[in-house]
Amino acid sequence: MTHYIDGFPGRELSIDHKKYLYFGGTSYLGLQTDVEFQDLFIAKVRQYGTNYGASRKSNIRLKVFELAEQLLADLTGCESALTLSSGYLAGQFIAQHFNKSAYKLFYAPNTHSALYNNYNKPYTSFEMLGKAITEHLSKNKEVTPVVFIDSIDFDGCNYPHFEELKILPLDQTILVVDDSHGIGVIGENGSGVYKTLKKYNTKELVVCCSLGKGFGIQAGVVLGSINRVNKLQNSAFFGGASPAAPCSLATFIEAQSIYTSKRKQLRSNIELFRRLVKKINTFSFMEDHPSFGFENKDLSQYLEEHGFMLTNFNYPEESSTVMSRIVLSSHHHKNDIKLLTDTINQFI
Hints:
Blueprint: E1 12-15, E2 18-23, H1 35-48, H2 63-76, E3 80-84, H3 87-97, E4 103-107, H4 126-139, E5 144-150, E6 174-178, H5 194-198, E7 204-210, H6 212-215, E8 220-224, H7 226-233, H8 236-240, H9 246-254, H10 256-276, E9 284-285, E10 291-294, H11 297-305, E11 308-314, E12 322-327, H12 334-347
Parallel strand pairs: 2-11, 4-5, 5-6, 6-7
Antiparallel strand pairs: 1-2, 3-8, 7-8, 9-10, 10-12, 11-12
Helix pairs in contact: 1-9, 2-9, 10-12
């Protein structure tokens, strides 16, 4: 059932005059309703305005873009970073950039639609994907394969160990990874998966992601080599697009201590949830990630009847299967999690 509300859903929300504890969405660090983070953001709005509609190639340029991009490169361990107005745009940017005769596009299972060029049907298994790439290379080594995957696929195929990638000819393949659900949350200081995947000896690694889920700002980023980022930056696509709001990037730069504190709280909440649920294998989950998926429709209904609202809808299309997921956040209190786990334990 679809519910309409009049404010951002924090740890609590009200529907038809009934209060619920909210364990859904993607506000992993709970920043959107955090007063300290909001105050910092408001201060940056007053400095930079609410939006900046000019091209990054304009003769008048703001320093904050390059400062934020250098911080993102240092944080993630890549050579260069390029920010855009959203994570979805970053994915489309990369998909269109590689949609040329010099490349052949391949899509791994569960790849997010942000990475599709028009509609690209993903392979149903990595075994089939590996065979297709190997067959392509045997016929045409001049056309470089480009593989698109999600770092957090919610089925455990990729993060944290990326075992399935090992069957692919990565040394001959450009790997493009959407790390929207990882960056800001997983890895050292929220660095995401770039450093991990850099060890896989790919022909080239490109990571794109939203900064909204882990860092609480409306922006996207592409991470990669200096050469690749320069090509992207010099494109008409980039020059014609409005950038991320500079107030968002300025907030990101100065909120590093807030992010550190919030990640610590999130990991404490994850540990508490996993410790208190008696049958944790009821859920599909990944190390250090705050999402816990399940397929039991009756559990969703039971939790809602007992005052808990979760992520529970058909995704990404109406014809898709129902995505049921408990999502923990830094804004949840210990007692919130205890109430939730007590209710889960009563059901299972």
